[in-house]
Predict the 3D structure of the following.
Amino acid sequence: MPLITVIPGDGIGPEVTEQALALLDGLGLDLSFDVLDHVNAGTFLATGCALSDDDLARIRRSDGALLGAIGDARVAGTRYARDVLLRLRFELDLYANYRPAQLLHDRLSPLRDPDRRAIDCVIVRENTEGLYTDIGGALRPGSTAEVAIDTEVSTHLGVSRVIDFALASATRAVCMVDKSNAVPNGGRLWQQCWLDATAARPDLATSHLYVDVAAMRLLSDPTAFDVIVTNNSYGDILSDLAAELAGGLGTSASVNLNPQTGFGLYEPVHGSAPDIAGTDTANPIGAILSAALLLERVGHPAEAAAVRTAVRMAVAEVRCTADLGGRLGTKAAGEAIRAALH
Ligand code: NAD
Ligand code: IPM
Ligand code: MN
């Protein structure tokens, strides 16, 4: 029986995770759960460590993990996110961050032109390198002469494997996004790996955009994209943009994946939303669609499809939270999706 580790986390994390778990429970599948309730900012504040080596070992023994959100104003500016979320991504080598964006309902698009609303793309974000490696330092910290350095790391292995994953995920087209006109070394490496990998895939439409123009094109015509592959930072930013074009940040799902081991850390794209935490207003759809991504990869693709259909039905009937124009709270919105499943 597949064992899923659950990390509800902070803020709205536990609220949306509760709805994702209720939905999974209701499917009556052969899944069991190991809930790590203590991996949160409170534990970090109390002990200085929110994710212990033992926790990591438990997660490694499981078949996948579901995470709510990590983040709390009380630990802003500390190593908290690094020690939990980034540690999981790095130590489990979850190098492909797969973030699909498909328009949930026409009324949710912020675009005026109906012909350009139907975004249906995936952002494949490199997830273990770039600006996130914590290599750098500060000279004369705290002084007015301070120099702060964060190194952007790209390796041949890291870039080529995420490009390979993106090409393997695509059926139509892949666009590689970089900033090689301004970032000479990493830019050259991304360009070289891209050239080498695409030579073997004449069946796909392949293209390249600089990240500034990619952001503009995502807004002017999101239907132009199928798969976008890019580095860690650009993928972070473009995936929030794509999420908003698809219906809203609260609806966006993701998996941090190691395609070789098959291990995935499934989480909504949004954060802990402290501005609405505890008010029963958070949209549970990002967490629920992340659970659907999990179902797909642990051998239940039919159930994953049914969950997606149920989400679409609930949204179409405006049985959803206020960010999507509805009047339901988090719990009631989760319940509406479960009801649409039956
Ligand atoms: P955020 O995604 O938490 O919130 C941005 C805005 O979107 C807020 O106005 C919030 O209310 C709204 N929002 C987000 N999720 C929503 C939902 N499900 N339903 C309705 N509205 C929703 O981003 P932020 O405010 O920049 O970050 C808050 C904290 O979360 C920070 O500590 C940040 O580091 C962390 N964070 C964590 C993750 C993660 O765990 N993967 C991702 C992003 C941010
Ligand atoms: C995300 C988040 C994280 C990131 C933060 C919380 C470190 O924004 O998962 O998109 O930048 O990767
Ligand atoms: Mn982000």
In short: The CA atoms of residues 253 and 290 lie 5 Å apart. The radius of gyration is 20 Å. The first helix runs from residue 13 to 26. The mean pLDDT is 98.
